[in-house]
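name: query_chain
kind: protein
chains: 1
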Amino acid sequence: MLNAKMKVVIAGGGTAGWLTAAALSKQLGESLDITLVESEEIGTIGVGEATIPPMRTFHRLLGIDESAFMSATNATFKLGIQFENWKQIGETYFHSFGMTGKRTLITEFIHFWLRGRKLGIGGGLGDYCLEYKSALQERFSLNSKSKLNYAFHLDASRYASFLRNMAEVHGVKRAEGKIQEVVQDIDTGFIRELKLVSGQQIPGDLFIDCTGIRALLIEDTLKTGYEEWKHWLPCDSAIAVQTSSVAPAKPYTKSIANHAGWRWQIPLQNRVGNGLVFSSPFMSDDEAMGMLLSSIEGDTLTQPKIIKFNTGMRKKGWNKNCVAIGLSSGFLEPLESTSIHLIMTSITRLLALFPHQEIKQSIVDEYNDQAKSELLRIRDFIILHYKATEREDSAFWRYCKNMNVSDELSHRIKLFKDVGKSYQVEDELFRLDSWVQVMIGQGLVPASYHPIVDLMPESELNNFLMSISSDVNQNLSMLSKHHEFVNQYCKIHE
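structure:
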């Protein structure tokens, strides 16, 4: 079936398309003939501008120079997300990318902190995390002594252009034009070629669907099916707008809840990405538009863009000879900045299971099983933010607080509330520290802690807590102001 050089056709550009093209051409370029089809007439959503730390590992795989990438994409550093009004109106907590405290072989740091809290010694949970304190003091540096765990805020359009340059250097061909028809093999149902409006025909062996929410190949053509999650994640709409900066960029994203959703602030070097995510049964488009525009600072640089979505996942991310990557594979709202990460893990999974001679069903099934497992756990972590709320001030929050959730999430919540225990399964994206920070931040206070910490004398516990917070403060003192470090490390060149 396959030629000596396998023909890979990527339908759609944007971050998903060009990231796929860059990775495949970098890792398998000599054995592949890669063509990416995109039309300048078709815009991309382009709002996935906040990321999470695993992006740095993927960039190392592609040999990307960090300062060059940041300069090209108007990027700043990100140490976590500040959540406002999620537990209660007026209350704030922080989900940082760092490790909180120190672990022991028997139990996690949270149990030492809980006992200290009971005894009235020690500080807040964030006092034991360098990334948390660095973020709030707007500090950042890259040095061997204070190793911060970080990600980026970036310009999605510039990122796609940056990746396109990389991909074309490694031999990827770009075909301009709209797809008019997806031609299938009569016998197998496999996709055989794409026909463009111009009349150009682009045959392939493996097709990557990066056409976004339209899912032109995986759904319109192959009728793969979709599993909806709107009963757990009721937000179905977003509005995005860019504004000029009015202050130095902070090294964290803001997520500010309202009566029917939340809005984001993502600070880049010379502008800010703003958006409002909301549930249309509880807020109209006009109300959402007014709320967003009345809350932003700075001059608007773009026209506000309304995006409609349906949270869920494609029933198969890989169907026949088509792999869906990016929004064509499903949609998880951007609350924890997982959009670009899911593109990268899909690509990594495809590289690990790449079909070099023919597409075996066992490979397809393994890909789909891994993708589903990953998505379900990320989904549950996002649902946690809505379910574990004390808010009852609106119909939206009353619904979220009282909704039934998956058995696994329900178990995680009960286990933490009962005994302060959380866990991280193999290959799970969000670490133990992430679960703990969000559960504590949302108001889930454990009824008890591990009995082993009661064996530590109070003075020893006090010294233990003080030594950790002292180390954090010492490392903090060695960091530069974030905006000063960005200017020195990766200032944007217009």
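note: The chain is about 35% helix and 20% strand.
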